[in-house]
UniProtKB/TrEMBL annotation:
Keywords: Hydrolase, Tryptophan catabolism. It comes from Podospora pseudopauciseta. Residues 180-199 are annotated as: Disordered. The main chain amide nitrogen atoms of the second glycine and its adjacent residue in the HGGXW motif define the oxyanion hole, and stabilize the oxyanion that forms during the nucleophilic attack by the catalytic serine during substrate cleavage. The active site is at residues 228, 327, 359. Pathway: Amino-acid degradation; L-tryptophan degradation via kynurenine pathway; L-kynurenine from L-tryptophan: step 2/2. Catalyzes the hydrolysis of N-formyl-L-kynurenine to L-kynurenine, the second step in the kynurenine pathway of tryptophan degradation. Kynurenine may be further oxidized to nicotinic acid, NAD(H) and NADP(H). Required for elimination of toxic metabolites. SUPFAM superfamilies: alpha/beta-Hydrolases. This is Kynurenine formamidase. A motif (HGGXW) lies at residues 133-137.
Length: 381
């Protein structure tokens, strides 16, 4: 199931959607009619979907992800869809975007080069998996596309599960968000994508999730995951938005999966484990870059300081903390402290899993991350 695909063939076709019988129809519910004009009757199931949302979604075509060995379509992908209202005119903020993958396994024997129409909206049975990348809130070399190896493995797993009569995945998404300045990648203050300061990062994440939900994705029982600082953002997303001076409302996930996560920055900077003392200055630098110099803000922003997780996240059922003991950047005690804190301050089911490898290996390779997410999401069935 987790074999690496030798090559992913990407093909773009602006044609018709398919229902699960394989016939041309609106199997992917569309916000457009036959002449690509938006139809109020087709968007009635998503009452908050604006025309700007529709334009933003339709601005990016679907591309097919094909298993070259079998010739079967594993799924469909949209890349860098703008999630801030303004659609294609919002080109200046390229990091306020998301990538979406849909499994094609709802169609028996699906193997076609025809892609759904660009305005088609995701709607399938199963659960959504949403991912937030890491990079210390500032690394421009890590973005939503870093989830691609994992997403492809998840599409392969969905195809395999369909053959056994069960498809737990409805869709997969990976979010970009504005970054803080990076000393090794200066912009001279000329790039608004790279001048973010808390709460800009979590504001973007919530906006991205709200956009996806207006489209009909990631509602009901769904899974939110994040790696490194992305794990921090995942937990921030299920805390009360008023903490960050925001009012963005989302349907919160039932499960959060933290991967090699940062949960107590202030605690690490104050007293890092002996083998990680050499990283104290680096932590201090990127923390100040993301959150400013007020150490009270550092504490308040970290998920290990929430007073009452039961009231903060009423929809929450389970937290999965995956950490590698070989991680050279994040100590294992970040997992231990977060797990202990959640156990004391909530009735959540807390589960620990081994990530394996060094800090970034889990997303660079993708197979272990896909295994973790697929196992967890299958438990929601």
């Amino acid at each position: 199931m987790w074999r690496r695909l030798s090559q992913i063939v990407v093909k773009v076709r602006r044609r018709h959607g398919f229902d699960c019988s394989g016939s041309a129809s609106s199997g992917f519910p569309t916000a457009a009619g036959a002449q690509s004009k938006f139809d109020k009757t087709t968007t009635a199931t998503m009452p908050s979907l604006s025309e700007k949302d529709q334009l933003a979604w339709a601005s990016v075509p679907w591309t097919s992800v094909v298993d070259e060995e079998s010739g079967n379509v594993l799924g469909w992908r949209k890349s860098q869809v703008p999630y801030i209202p303004g659609g294609v005119d919002n080109s200046g903020l390229s990091l306020q975007t998301l990538d979406v993958w849909l499994p094609a396994s709802c169609t028996p024997g699906y193997a076609t080069s025809q892609a759904p129409d660009a305005p088609s909206l995701p709607s399938q049975s199963g659960h959504w998996i949403v991912y937030i990348h890491g990079g210390a809130w500032r690394d421009p070399m890590i973005d939503a596309s870093s989830f691609s190896p994992t997403a492809i493995n998840l599409l392969q797993a969905a195809a395999s599960s369909f053959s056994k009569g069960s498809v737990p995945i409805a869709g997969v998404a990976s979010l970009n968000y504005r970054l803080s300045p990076h000393p090794n990648h200066p912009t001279g203050g000329r790039d608004p994508n790279r001048e973010a300061r808390h709460p800009d990062h979590i504001s973007d994440v919530l906006d991205g999730l709200a956009f996806l939900q207006r489209l009909g994705g990631a509602t009901g029982s769904w899974l939110l995951s994040g790696h490194s600082c992305g794990a921090t953002l995942a937990f921030q997303a299920v805390m009360a938005p008023s903490r960050w001076g925001l009012d963005t409302a989302i349907v919160k996930p039932t499960v959060v999966v933290g991967l090699n996560g940062l949960y107590d920055l202030a605690g690490f900077i104050t007293m890092p484990p002996p083998e990680y003392v050499g990283l104290r200055d680096a932590y201090d630098e990127f923390t100040r870059g993301a959150f400013g110099d007020d150490e009270t803000v550092w504490k308040d922003a970290c998920p290990a300081t929430a007073d009452d997780w039961t009231s903060e996240w009423q929809e929450g059922k389970q937290v999965v903390l995956a950490q590698s003991r070989e991680d050279s950047l994040v100590p294992y005690d970040q997992l231990e402290k977060m797990g202990a804190y959640l156990s004391k301050s909530s009735s959540l089911n807390i589960r620990e899993m081994e990530a394996g490898g060094d800090h970034d290996d889990i997303w660079k390779k993708g197979d272990r991350l896909a295994e973790i997410l697929y196992e967890v999401v299958s438990g929601l069935m």
